[in-house]
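Below is a filled-in request sheet from our internal design queue. Each sheet records the structural input a requester submitted and the sequence that came back. We keep these sheets so that new team members can see what a complete request looks like end to end.

REQUESTER: design group, bay 2
PRIORITY: normal
MODE: inverse folding
CHAIN LENGTH: 150
BACKBONE (tokenized):
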């Protein structure tokens, strides 16, 4: 093996790169599994609690935090829209939105790990491909009809 290739190979050890790819794929597997196991409906947006003041001058909210109210925050045409969630709907909206959050978190983890795998695959390719300078054989090329091209 040429000295140049051996030095390059030590810098980008293919065996270690393969091990790293396997490790990342194992880390990615539970996220893929969680995505595949998602069967229940999801609700897009963020489930938030806001504290509002009612406006009554004698109410405790004038000196305290305010009255808690649940909202679903959604993006609608580039604008944020808040949808009030009543007490009867809180549990259901919280559950469906929680599934959405977990789904998106798993999706983000898969994307991050997939990018890392592709980066390492590119490094593995670079470690295994011989430098182009090794292709030169000293022969002259021949064009059409067998004539030399200089």
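RETURNED SEQUENCE:
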């Amino acid at each position: 093996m040429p000295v140049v290739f051996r030095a390059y190979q030590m810098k980008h050890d293919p065996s270690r790169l393969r091990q790293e790819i396997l490790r990342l794929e194992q880390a990615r597997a539970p996220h893929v599994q969680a995505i595949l196991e998602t069967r229940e409906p999801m609700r897009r947006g963020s489930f938030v609690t806001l504290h509002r003041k009612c406006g009554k001058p004698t109410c405790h909210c004038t000196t305290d935090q305010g009255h808690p109210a649940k909202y679903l925050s959604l993006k609608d045409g580039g604008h944020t829209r808040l949808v009030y969630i009543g007490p009867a709907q809180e549990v259901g909206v919280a559950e469906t939105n929680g599934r959405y959050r977990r789904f998106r978190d798993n999706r983000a983890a898969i994307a991050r790990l997939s990018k890392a795998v592709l980066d390492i695959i590119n490094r593995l390719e670079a470690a295994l491909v011989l430098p182009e300078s090794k292709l030169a054989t000293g022969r002259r090329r021949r064009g059409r009809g067998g004539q030399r091209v200089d």
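SHEET NOTES:
- Residues 90-128 form the longest helix (39 residues).
- The chain has one domain: 3-134.
FILED BY: M.R.
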